[in-house]
Amino acid sequence: YGGSRTFCCFSLAMVEQCLRGEELRARHQAALLKLRKKALQEKARAELAWLGHQKHCLENLQDSKGASAMAAKQRKILTELKQEQVEIQHLQNVYRAAHRERKLLLKQQREILMMQHSTAQLQEKLHHL
């Protein structure tokens, strides 16, 4: 009986440690996706600014073909940015759902271990009686 209680407490501690690790991984993943989103936005903003400058210069030179090419490149960059943002949002949703599932499994495991611990304690009390 004593050995099973020790094992139960050890297992419970491991589940608690796994839960803390899961929370930490979820925070790291969220932070990485947030940084990726910010980097994409900054990159797009810089590229759009550069193309806007080039477009303005071409307009001043009255190069309508060049200016329209720059406008097309700007639209392409905006489209790619939106696609990347959609992908990041999808990844965030997937990671969030997977995190909730893992967390739920760990909590269920903790509840099972706590029930086993309670049962072992009751059996030990019955054994002493």
TrEMBL record:
InterPro entries named among the record's database cross-references: CEP350/CC187 (IPR028750)
Gene Ontology biological-process entries: microtubule anchoring
GO cellular component terms given for this protein: centrosome
One MF term in the entry's GO annotations: microtubule binding
Domain of life assignment: Eukaryota
Protein name per UniProt: Centrosome-associated protein 350
Protein source organism: Balearica regulorum gibbericeps
